[in-house]
Fold these 2 entries.
Entry 1:
Amino acid sequence: MKQWIYLDGEFVTKENAKVSVYDHGFLYGDGIFEGIRIYGGNIFKCKEHLERLYDSAKSIMLNIPLPIEEMQDVLLETIRKNELQDGYIRLIVSRGPGNLGLDPLRCPKASVIIIVEQLAIYSEEAYRNGLRTVSVAERRNIPDALNPKIKSLNYLNNILVKIKANLADVGEAIMLNAQGYVTEGSGDNIFLVKKGVVYTPPCYLGALEGITRGAIMELCQKLGLTLKEEPFSLHDIYVADEVFFTGTAAEVIAVREVDGRIIGSGQAGPVTLSLLENFRKIVTEDGVKVYD
Ligand code: PMP
């Protein structure tokens, strides 16, 4: 079956989905995006993802050429056109084509692209055993330079971290902020569990306000787990009972090793596994149904 991509009001095949070399998303990373999951025909946390997209747009003064309700309709249409039940949605809004100068005023119209695809996910073994990870020297972008709450197309900070993870032959890496507090992974939020309490860093330290992070915080409350949004350091990670990452692609995945220190039992711990199990129960419910 053909893969259809939504490109500025039209559906084109993957082969024909081309953007201008003058697009400021390409030239400067000037744009924003969302990564969204669809589970059994349900767009998980659709509203939250769209709201984050429009908030990012507002923050960088990017005028999305369709209102949020229409964006949701287009999203649904793209999924239906691709007959997708389970997979990943990449929604991109770039500043659009301009000239070679930086000035966004030279970009008359933002470009909207929606790609829906099957998703290659971690193996069930990885969810049970956990990931090895390292901390890296590269600090998270400071919020008063480029706020990590903006899900911008400028992912070079994250890519540099991914390169370090690759060099260390691990699946994900941990970024600190300029003060040495833990912020997040290259593409995931981070949590730790100590003596039954779940901790995650506040996003003002320099992290994306992950939708999965939000869902896990809600689940903690539902399951009666104490959750604290508090700054913590690498030391706290090393001595934690459990550490896990959350993200649209990764869901809830345990960390078994950080910088050579074995975390807890060296496998996914009971809190992590319980959160994963409960998370997987809500992903087909909490969102917008595509085929009703
Ligand atoms: N942090 C970063 C830097 C990310 O790219 C992502 C993935 N979008 C996350 C955290 C997790 O966010 P979400 O749960 O919304 O996918």
Entry 2:
Amino acid sequence: MDISTAYKDNNYKIHVDRNILKNVLQTYTKQYESVYYIIDENIYDIYKDSKLSFIISPLVVTGGESFKYVSPLMHTMEALLASGIKRNSLLVVIGGGATGDAGGFIASIILRGVDYIHVPTTLLAHDSAIGGKTAINSEHGKNLIGAFYRPRAVIYDLEFLDSLPEDEVLSGFGEVFKHAMLHSPALLDELMAATENSIDITALPPYIIKGIETKMKIVIEDEHESGSRKFLNLGHTLAHAVEYKYKIPHGQAVMLGIIAALYISNELNGAGFDLDAYIAYIRRHGYPVQLLKEMDIDEMMHFMQKDKKNHRSDYISYVVFEDKNTPAVTDIKIEDLQNMLTALKERI
Ligand code: NAD
Ligand code: ZN
């Protein structure tokens, strides 16, 4: 299935299917004089003799979050320059969201910008297929150095997901779940029914596609994050604090953050979510629900107050639901949030 972006200009295709990489990539590479590959080493180790055997002399990098720093970035750019990359070369970046973020940032600055294609290999990376954000980390925080820079295409070959470790499946599924929730209660019900007892990757493609479309709709309405794009932050305010403190994968923390957002939506707006059903569902799938009970509220509040999305002191900006259909951004008084999270702990 091909999804086309619907920006005013500079549109690109997101190709989503199993076993498409080589054929789809060829349709792009033949337009360029030279093609360079950056590949996450875990992916290269698994697929070098199969799906990736057609690639000659790639730059194999230590993928994951450790790639998103200045030093590996410079090292990779020097290697690309040494091997003769030109303005009209194509850069193909194969890996999860981290390799995609740093590889996309390299594409945006090397020689003042070359075309690139992202080949996501994780479930979570469906999220970065759209939005045009590239970034690396600073010692002051995550994703603080980067650029908005769109790829020429995204080729999401779902066969890569077959080798994804369980922890990463749970993480990526957190964002799939978030996008379904932002789409509609009906889609969320369908997704929860399809994954009632376990998350079977083969059942997910329709929801991955819907997720990309949902994010696209929101991003296109609001490319520079002043209004509705903030809804994509659902679950993320608490998630960033939990992720930072307990070092769990991003999307797993998002799932815990969504539970907190639903509880708060019930408390503030009488949104009517069946909280116990959601908690039972995520517990059944192996999310670390106990962290919502163990978390130190003062510490969580301290991290949440540093969130770059806050714009009023004494308040924390939070995505909640007014009712099951309607997400909204609201500023919650620090003291009120503290009380609600303390009460949530008792519920777990
Ligand atoms: P990741 O890229 O760090 O990959 C997670 C781990 O899984 C790594 O160890 C990697 O080597 C391994 N891996 C990747 N694919 C695999 C596969 N198919 N089989 C086996 N192992 C595999 O993680 P991620 O969760 O994809 O991405 C997280 C990053 O994405 C974060 O840095 C986040 O900031 C970024 N992100 C960016 C956007 C955006 O819009 N730009 C959106 C969401 C997330
Ligand atoms: Zn996220």
